[in-house]
Structure formats: structure tokens, C-alpha cells
User: What shape does this take?
Amino acid sequence: MRSTKEAPVAIRLRAPTTSRWLRAVLDDFDAFLVDHAACERKAMATGMLFVVRYPDREAILETMIEFAKEELEHFQELVRLLLRRGLRPGADIEDQYAGRLQKLVRHGRDERLLDRLLVSAIFEARGCERFGMLATHLPEGEERELYRRLTRADARHQRTFLELAERYFSNDAIEARVAALLDAEARIVTSLDPAPSLYSGA
Assistant: This one.
């Protein structure tokens, strides 16, 4: 286990999201909301996947159950917003960003656990950044307040996944792997075109 004396690891995205992504989202905000709702549903499923696959890791069980419950609440909130706007949740579609990032997860029980935790932290960090942009640029109202709250939530979730990694792995192991994954994430996000979706190109 990691020494409690070590400084915590932080996620610092290598490729900041540009105004091109923001314009793509604001130009078709309805499409973005449908995609975002799907992302919240997938996040809930991710939390439960940790519970199913790591029942012997006590710290993961309680933490990920709470995470999944919160993400389910976010999904419900997005669904209600969609319905008020005359929209419906959409079917899952292939997400190039998520698919390529998940392919970086290594084999081996410990390596897979570390990578899953760190990839999840990176997802939350990217979401936090982009929700923050929306919280700044949306007009005052229900949607802007929603994204203010979600920005704070994803900041907490990012830290949650890092703290779980710190529970089971050394600072050196985490920092080395975070650096490699962040470099890869930057290459992925800059290779994609911006679109009205949460995890499209930067």
C-alpha cells in the first residue's frame, strides 16, 4: 500500500479543450444533452463494474456503490431535462474517445486495476473541464446551474479514483502510469473532430 506521507497525485490534462468544442456543443445543445445522459448512464455502470470485479477490495466496494448511486441520480436529472425539452434518451453509440482510452488498459490483475482507476480519473477530469466551460458560457438558468454542480461533482470523482489508486499502489507507480495515460489521452482527443458530445475532439 502507498505511504500516507507521499503527496497526492493530480490529473493535469495535456490538451485543453478549445472553443471549437464549445461551439459544436452550443450549436446543437439538444444533441449534446442526449449524449451527456448516455455518458452518465455509462458512468453508473462503470461504478458497478468495479464492485462486481473487485469484491475483495473493501475500499472499492463502498466507494464505488456511492459513486454509482450519484451517477444514477445525474442520469435521472438529465433524463428529466430531456423530457422537459421534448427529447428522449438515445441508444448507445460507439464512442471513439472512450474506446481508444479503454484499449490502453493493461492485462494482469494489478495492472488492470490501476489502469481502470486512472482511466476513470481521466474521464472525470475531462468531464470536469468541459462542464466548467458550459457553466461559464451557458446563459443563466437551469442548465447553467446544472453544469456548475456537475463541475464540482466531477472534480470530486476525479479525486475519488485517484484516492482509490493511492490506497493500493505506490506514488511512483501511479505517477508513471498517469503520465503515460495523459500523453495518450492528449493524442486521442486532439485526433478527433469536435462534435456535440461530451468526449469528442478538443
Remarks:
- Residues 63 and 198 are 24 Å apart (CA to CA).
